[in-house]
Structures are given as C-alpha cells and as structure tokens.
Design goal:
alpha/beta, globular, six-stranded mixed beta sheet, Rossmann fold, 13 strands, binds glutamic acid
Length: 473
C-alpha cells in the first residue's frame, strides 16, 4: 500500500468525482467544468501584533462554482491552511449544497494562523483585514459570496465580518446576509450553532432505519443502544455526541488532539467539555480510561464512528484497523481515497461528509433567507397557530366532554418558534437527502459506495443547473 501515490486533498476530491462521473451521462467537457475551481483568491496582508511586530498573514478565498449565486462556505483558521485544502473544501461545498437543494455555489476561505496563539484583539484585526480584502475584490456580499464559521471560527468572527462589511458598504439594505453563523443579536438564526451536529444525527438516524442497510451490517434498527465513538469535541463533535446520547446511544469514546478517553457505559459530552475547560485536557476524566494515543479511538470496536475534526485522519496507515460498522463523516474529508477502498472491501458503510455535514450550510441558508426577509421565523404565525389550536381543542373537548392532560395541552397549543422551524427544516432536508442518495445506490448495484452515490446525485444536479443556464449551446 505504501507504494501508492499519496493524493493531496483536492486530488482526493477529484478522484472521488471521477469515480462517480462514469455513472453519469454528462459529456467530458461539462464534467471538467463542474469539477474545476472557478476563482481562487490568494492574498497576503500585514497585521501589527500586540508586541508591535508585523506579521504577514497568508489567506485564501476560493469560489469553486457560480452555477448558483451566491457562493457559500465557511472560513477556517488553522496552521494547516493551504490553497489545495481550500480548493478541496470549496468543491465539497458545491456538491454539498446541490445534494441538499440549497441554491448556492460552493466556496471556502482559510487563514493560515493558529487562533490559540493570538490574542482576541489580534484575531479581530486579522478577521477585519481579511474581510476588507474580500470587499476590495468583490469576493463577499449577500448576492456574491457568503462566508460562515468553519474549523477555528465561530459567532464572534462572523460578527466582526458583518460589522466590517456594513461599515464599508453603508446603506446596503441586505448587508446582514453577507455572512452566516452570526450571533442572534447580529442577525443570526436560532438553531445554527447545533445545526451541523444535529444534521449528522438526522442523517445517520435515517440510515439506521433502513432495514436493508442494517441487515447488511448485522445491526439492529434504530439509534437506541448503539455504541458511538466521536473524534473531535469542537462544535460539530460536541453536538453530534449530544444528540446521539440524548436519543439513547452510548458515546463510549471521545478523542481530541491531546488524547482520547473511553468508558463502556457512555460519556456525557457536556461533562467532558467542562472537564477539558477546567484542566486543559480531556484526559483523566473521572470514570473513564485514557487511551494510549488519540488515534486509538478510531480503531475501537463500535457501531458508529464519527470523525468530526479534520481531513485525512483515516488513511492507508490505519484504515485496516478500523472496526466500526458504520462511519459518519461529520468532518470534511476525514477519509482518504485509499481508506474508502479498504472499507468497500470490508463492507463498512461510510456516510459521506458532503451531505452528512450539510446541516450547517442548510441552516445558513435559512439564516440568509431570514436576513433578506428582515423578519424572524415564526413572528407572523406563532400566535395565530396557538389561537387556532386553542379553538380546535375547545371544540373537541366540548363535543367529547373529555379534557386532555395539561402536558398534552401544551404540546397541542404550541405555535412554532424560530428554532422549531429551523430544526424541522433541517430534519426534512437530511431525511430527503439520505433517501435520495440511497435510492441512487440501490438502483445501480455497480456503484461501490455511498460516497460515489452522493457524488452522482451532486453531479447530476449541478449538471442540470449548468445546462439550464444555457451556456453550452
Ligand atoms: N463550514 C460549514 C461547512 O463546511 C458551513 C458552511 C456554511 O454554513 O456556509 O459546511
């Protein structure tokens, strides 16, 4: 295996794309266009640090496809950022949006810094300068390109971005839609923070309810009692663990870069998070065993393995030793193409990143719509629904002479709030996408894995979109 070519991240994405394109009917030129990164903006800018020194910051924004506008995708802060990585991540965004019917092209941004090594003030200066570079080149705007959080960024950075954008574009009525993942007070939407983790849960839960897949894997139907290993306790890993635990699964191991812990009776992600906050490490968590190395968690026997950190963590060096029955890619690109081949042979089902972690961008879409409509979800209909439900209930109680319990009354009366609508829209999106991809896989037995089926789904949708744009007479 070691004699094989090592693929860069972008090459891995291209390889998966090529593998899938043979199952589509598009002509070569169109496939080339779908695959190519349309615009790559590589920048360097100086920032004065707290100690007075000047640092040259390396950063990128890649717009993979403008087959729909605006382009969409997060911005990551990481020392590993490079052009190839951002191009790969931007491509995945195009396919991800297509699969979940979010009408955006794909994009991604990256700043090559370690956020832990900078003060908050330095991070603010870097973020604001990056934003003004994007404005200068017309690489950001509610109708052009809309960033969002990714690895190493969150609400705070998104607030800096929207503020910088608004100050450079005074009077732009839809300016709040220039970035998503904002704090609620700055135009964010309720439910965005947990969206990716919740989407991961909804997507895997749907697979766990497919009798044919479960039979093939020798697993029982449903979430209840399943053992889960989660790599990464960031926003995505934390919320994936939370929803699995709340629905009766046992999160037996959690890994972070400093190490991994194991407890066969299950771990509570919030307690582990607090322990890490207090001690600086997830290790030595009360009641749990420390594993020798962080990577050992990936090799534990379990039902479901959820890599929720960075790319290429399962590759030709460790894929052989993975014992999970099902892998849910919460991170972007956690498996190498070599790992895919190993899992096809071993019969392990990989639920692929580019739709499984689409919960984030799906709810970003809802946030963007909220920003353009300038009204909170539920504001117009919540009270109306409650009044109507109350009326219906009164009639039923009057006609039957019976009364419902207080608990039931609360459920029936409840008019949808913003978070209810966002969760419901996300659940619908993830269930539909899972079924659509599985249908493609079931209907074509020569498709080797779910990733290829997902790519076929994405390529077909982007292909239709390009063709309908009419640029290929
Ligand atoms: N960074 C997230 C992703 O990789 C979210 C992107 C977005 O909301 O635009 O999907």
């Amino acid at each position: 295996m070691s004699s094989q070519k090592h693929y860069s991240f972008f090459e891995s994405v291209e390889k998966s794309f090529d593998k899938a394109s043979q199952f589509t009917k598009w002509e070569k030129g169109l496939l080339e266009q779908i695959k190519a990164c349309n615009s790559v903006y590589s920048m360097r800018f100086p920032v004065k640090m707290d100690d007075g020194s000047i640092e040259v910051i390396e950063a990128y924004r890649v717009q993979h496809s403008q087959h729909k506008s605006p382009c969409k995708g997060g911005i990551r802060f990481s020392e590993e950022v490079n052009q190839d990585e951002v191009m790969a991540l931007a491509s995945l965004m195009t396919y991800k949006c297509a699969i979940v019917n979010v009408p955006f092209g794909g994009a991604k941004g990256g700043i090559k810094i370690n956020p832990r090594k900078h003060s908050v003030y330095e991070l603010e200066k870097i973020t604001r300068r990056y934003t003004s570079e994007l404005v200068k080149k017309n690489f950001i705007g509610p109708g052009i390109d809309v960033p969002a959080p990714d690895y190493g960024t969150g609400e705070r950075e998104m607030a800096w971005i929207v503020d910088t954008y608004q100050s450079l574009k005074p009077g732009e009525i839809d300016a709040a839609g220039c970035v998503t993942g904002k704090p609620i007070t700055q135009g964010g939407v309720r439910g965005r923070k947990e969206a990716t983790g919740l989407g991961v849960f909804y997507g895997i839960r749907e697979v766990l309810h497919m009798p044919d897949v479960m039979e093939k894997l020798g697993m029982t139907i449903g979430v209840e009692g399943k053992t889960v290993v989660v790599q990464g306790l960031g926003n995505v890993g934390y919320h994936s663990a939370k929803f699995f635990r709340e629905h009766g699964a046992k999160v037996v191991s959690i890994a972070e870069y400093e190490g991994a812990i194991y407890n066969e009776n299950g771990l509570n992600e919030e307690e582990v998070f607090q322990h890490r906050k207090a001690t600086g490490s997830i290790l030595n968590f009360p009641g749990a065993t420390n594993l020798a190395k962080s990577g050992d968690a990936l090799e534990l026997a379990c039902d479901i393995l959820i890599p929720a950190a960075l790319e290429n963590v399962i590759n030709e060096t460790n894929a052989d030793r993975v014992k999970a029955k099902l892998i849910g890619e919460a991170a972007n690109g956690p498996l190498s193409p070599e790992a895919d081949e190993v899992f096809i042979k071993k019969g392990i089902v990989v639920v692929p990143d580019m739709y499984l972690n689409a919960g984030g961008v799906t709810v970003s879409y809802f946030e963007w719509l909220k920003n353009l409509s300038h009204v909170r979800y539920g504001r117009m209909e919540k009270r109306f629904t409650e009044n109507m439900n109350s009326h219906i209930l009164e009639q039923i109680e009057g006609l039957t002479g019976k009364q419902v319990s207080e608990a039931q009354r609360k459920v029936i009366m409840h008019g949808a709030e913003e978070v209810d609508l966002v969760h419901s829209g996300l659940e619908e999106t993830m269930i539909t996408a899972t079924r659509e991809i599985m249908e493609i896989w079931r209907n074509n037995p020569s498709i080797p894995d779910m990733r290829t089926a997902a790519y076929v789904c994405a390529i077909n949708k982007v292909g239709v979109s390009y063709t309908e744009l009419g640029i290929f007479p």
